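Re: the multi-chain job from yesterday

Posting the exact lines I submitted so nobody has to dig through the queue logs.
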Amino acid sequence: MDPFLEMALDEARTGLGEAGIPIGSVLVHRGEVIGRGHNRRVQQGSAILHAEMDALENAGRQPAQVYRECTLYTTLSPCAMCSGAIVLYGIARVVIGENESFLGEEAWLRGHGIQVDVVQDPGCRELMRAFIETHPELWHEDIGH
Amino acid sequence: MDPFLEMALDEARTGLGEAGIPIGSVLVHRGEVIGRGHNRRVQQGSAILHAEMDALENAGRQPAQVYRECTLYTTLSPCAMCSGAIVLYGIARVVIGENESFLGEEAWLRGHGIQVDVVQDPGCRELMRAFIETHPELWHEDIGH
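And the result, structure tokens for all chains:
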């Protein structure tokens, strides 16, 4: 497994250990992790800290050029909000652990010239599948349903 | 001027008074303000707290049905990230102070069935115009340029 996706999965597991929604992300610039995070809806009562947003926030303010040389690894297909953040900053590439539990705005990302690679990793999928089965109300809240 | 847009403009002015980027937003549910905020890039070193995101975050976790009955007032046309958050939560209507300083993803919002009304308010426009003229580097950073 790609070590950066493994880190994102570790973030997701950390979130689960905090009774949170198990989605994790890592922002990588030229082979170096500059931000990592996980969904904080439960932990911080947050409506905006999806994993991708948390990783971007933890990376801090970066020059535009840095984002354009970044790859964002995330355990689950990014929703409209997170995809919008990726488009805003022009992140070059997104590696997605799986998109079977949830399919976000991948087509929209590709339409903006962003490289989108979907791994369909069984570990990412199983973590999310089990969570959705046991906490459907939290999951639906997180995607605005 | 619409009192809720006036509140959003007050938020923008508060941001300017904090040496921040002067954009403000107010989230209104059935005539009641449930969240308000302004851009926090400078104040909190934030890459994600645009005004709309700050207002959504300050509203806290809300049921899906609440968002669908909300109007988001914002002094400036929402970027891809903020538009994505609006799409994620299915906010019914967005009232935009002006879109001459910056045109965000209004067409994409309308394509998702969201009502988008642009006021072209001179107060919103002048505040943004003056800021962009005096702080072009901050403004470009905020929109990923």
